[in-house]
Amino acid sequence: MKRKLIGRSIRKEFNGWWAISLIGATVILLPILFVFSSLFFKPNENWFHIREYLLGTYVKETLILVISTGALTAILGVTLAWLVTMYDFPLKRFFRWALILPLAIPPYIAAYTYRSMLSYTGVIQATLRNEFGYQMNPEWLNISSLRGAVFIFTLFLYPYVFLITRSFLEHQSASFFENARLLGRKPFFIFLKVVLPLSRPAVVGGVVLVIYEVLSDYGVTSYFGIHTITTAIFQTWFGMYDVNTAMRLAAWLMLIVVGMFIIERLLRSRQRYHLPAKSRPLAAMKLKGMGAAAAFIYCTLVFLAGFFIPFVQLIAWAVLTFDKVWNDTFFTLVYQTLYVALISTLIIIVVAVIVANVCRKQTAVSYFLAKWITTGYSVPGAIIAIGVLAIFIGLDQWLAPIYEMMGMADAPLILSLSIVMLITGYVIRFMATGYNAIEVGFEKVGTKYTEASRMLGSGVTKTFFKVDLPMIKGAIFSGFILTFVEICKELPLALLLRPFNFETLSTKTYQFAKDERIHEASVSSLIIIAISALSIVVLQMVNKKVKE
Amino acid sequence: MKIVDVQDLVFSFSSEGEPVINGVSITIMKDEIVGVLGPSGSGKSTMLRLIAGLEMPWQGSIYIAEKPVVADKLFVQPENRGVGMVFQDYALFPHMTVGENILFGLSRLPRKERKPRVAEMLELVKMGEFAERYPHELSGGQQQRIALARALAPKPNVLLMDEPFSNLDADLKAEIREDLRVILKKANITCMIVTHDRADVEAICDRSIEMGQREKIG
């Protein structure tokens, strides 16, 4: 009986769409599983050396970085979100969206901009010296430290917490707060005892995004000379070309990520982002005098430090170096970046649409498929990079006899030196960005139109092209932009997986900064910032649409 | 001829849950208009979805026009069953005009016959001049008539209607009931109408089936 039912279920649900989805999901999971498999290989002496003398430092610095940044972004993000939703003060409407802007500046760009500004020849010390004759102790402004990295990450990643908490508070029913007020409580008490506990799931969600970014980071940490597990993975590969040891480190990093997952579950306990269906939005309280001034100054300081000052500095440098940088080599760079990002994004969107379409019918299998295809986002880029690298090297070894037959024996590394490797890495890492946008699109449309089309004699595929696709156009568009932007500004994957001599905007920017040619990095930095700003605009548009 | 023949159907939404439909058998003859009555949760809409092929039963068999569509290992996809359905909220494709909506189901008709068939269907529901409109430009009653025309256009063996009056104003109900009966009779169609209102059944249907009891019915 049961077997007959399963057979019939397969007949009802299985088709080419499922086949493609399962293949896509396998390709995505393979490198991550491969990294884990390294734990079963016999370790070599490099590993013993690392474990004996270095691993302790790596884990310690990684944890300090993650915990401090997590705590500080939570404080900054929540207080700012609380101010712009609950109170009225000068320029509040401006700050409501301007405080998201730091997200447009990738932390590695912020890191070299700040370090350069604060250096001996930078604008701050030079001004003090030349205008005021004041010689400052350079140590005071030394940002190349763990503290400095926490500062950069906090200032440029807090918008994740801010955004999620803000939209959570804006959707909360006013009655909680008004009740608390009627019960005679002061706003600060309400913040502590009502707002914080209520918005805990939102805050935790935002902080988790921040921590993923920090764990994935290679640009800031390597530039500041900090030893995290991610930088160690890269150095093991770039310095020793030892894939197996790098994979072992990646497996360790993965353990930290899994630990975070568990902590996140515990912190959220049984709470979800629960939004009451029909709620009256909160009327903001007007701040006066000192209160208004304090709120204004706080927001202004964060905005200046997190966006305006580094942005203006970059423009100033760009003006100085524009003629030197703006040439054919640079155009090639832009072209290559856009080209790789475009191909990767197209692959992501096509796969995401197919899988999301299959997963619309909620079954146990589709639930796992959806989780599975989006794994890449919660796995730090370095792990994916090293997994992809190891698999491509393995593929080349495996295909070596075929290369030989084709008369290419003198070039035994074909796949692992090609752009295919980088594109594979991007697709795995950013599948979730595209998938989530498209899933939301499908959820909004529902299944009734699809069912109506089936009832009118159209099969799954025809229904998809004639009915589903036109209805999720908007979701596809926003998924495309968001994914494209993420890829354009991505650094660690590009550094590790690009073919020899292949540069993208982000790798070139990083290279300039590393070679202390800071000023020349500014033009490409500004282009990356402009592209990132595009995704913020799209996000805002989508949010507005959802509200309507 | 038996147009719909359902035998000992069992269905539940999850493997642990109480079956929504437990051993139901239904037979509908050609040109009958049958009402399916029952309180909410009695599984009457689910029954339509099972016949349509949008859900799969756990046990039992379904025959449409004397051909098996669910039996043993067999499962015929909804697009191949020759069943038409009018959804509760009509589900008219919002990105297509009224004419395109009706044309949508006619891909199996020779190209030359499609346009005349659309015109014929619009004539049947007295909406001839609305072919170029978009669904959101129509009133609820007009949308319902287009949904009906769209479902009838491919000449299905049987038409399934899920709560056809639930989205309409109460004072229009009597008039629309009468229109519907006329259209259905003119189209010569076998029809199953799910409703919770006994008055609907009395106004339109030849006979009725009660759902929500365990014993065999129909």
Features:
A: mainly alpha; two-stranded parallel ribbon; 25 helices; 77% helix; B: 218 residues; alpha/beta; five-stranded parallel β-sheet; 6 helices; 10 strands; globular; disordered C terminus
What's this model, at a glance?
By secondary structure, chain A is an all-alpha fold. Chain A has helices at residues 2-13, 16-37, 45-86, 92-98, 107-117, 123-132, 146-157, 159-171, 174-182, 187-198, 200-216, 219-223, 229-240, 243-268, 289-325, 328-358, 364-373, 381-405, 419-445, 448-455, 460-471, 473-489, 492-497, 505-514, 518-547; strands at residues 87-88, 285-286. The two termini of chain B are 15 Å apart.
Summarize the topology.
The complex is a heterodimer of chains A (548) and B (218).
Chain A: H1 2-13, H2 16-37, H3 45-86, E1 87-88, H4 92-98, H5 107-117, H6 123-132, H7 146-157, H8 159-171, H9 174-182, H10 187-198, H11 200-216, H12 219-223, H13 229-240, H14 243-268, E2 285-286, H15 289-325, H16 328-358, H17 364-373, H18 381-405, H19 419-445, H20 448-455, H21 460-471, H22 473-489, H23 492-497, H24 505-514, H25 518-547
Parallel strand pairs in A: 1-2
Helix pairs in contact in A: 2-16, 2-18, 3-7, 3-8, 3-11, 5-7, 8-11, 9-10, 11-14, 13-14, 14-18, 15-25, 16-17, 16-19, 16-22, 18-19, 19-22, 20-21, 22-25, 24-25
Chain B: E1 2-11, E2 21-29, E3 33-37, H1 44-52, E4 59-64, E5 67-71, E6 74-75, E7 83-86, H2 98-103, H3 111-124, H4 140-152, E8 158-162, H5 173-187, E9 190-195, H6 198-204, E10 207-210
Parallel strand pairs in B: 3-9, 3-10, 7-8, 8-9
Antiparallel strand pairs in B: 1-2, 1-4, 4-5, 5-6
Write structural notes for this entry.
The complex is a heterodimer of chains A (548) and B (218). Chain A is built from 25 helices and 2 strands. Chain A is mostly helical. Chain A has a single domain, classed as MetI-like (MetI-like fold, Orthogonal Bundle), CATH 1.10.3720.10. Chain A has a two-stranded parallel sheet with strand order 1-2. In chain A, helix 3 runs antiparallel to helix 11 (200-216), helix 15 (289-325) crosses helix 25 and helix 24 (505-514) packs across helix 25 (518-547). With 218 residues, chain B is of the alpha/beta class. Chain B has 6 helices and 10 strands, in the order βββαββββαααβαβαβ. Chain B has helices at 44-52, 98-103, 111-124, 140-152, 173-187, 198-204; strands at 2-11, 21-29, 33-37, 59-64, 67-71, 74-75, 83-86, 158-162, 190-195, 207-210. A 5-stranded antiparallel beta sheet of chain B has the order 2-1-4-5-6, covered by helices on one side. A 5-stranded parallel beta sheet of chain B has the order 7-8-9-3-10, with helices on both faces. In chain B, a hairpin with a 2-residue loop joins strand 4 and strand 5. In chain B, helix 3 runs antiparallel to helix 4. The longest helix of chain B is centred in the last third of the chain and has 15 residues, at 173-187. In chain B, 41% of the residues are buried. Residues 214-218 of chain B have low confidence and may be disordered. Chain A binds chain B through residues 1, 4-5, 7-9, 11-12, 448-449, 451-459, 462, 466-467, 470-471, and chain B through 52-54, 56, 58-59, 70, 72-75, 77-80, 83-85, 87, 89, 91-95, 104-105, 107-108, 150-151, 154.
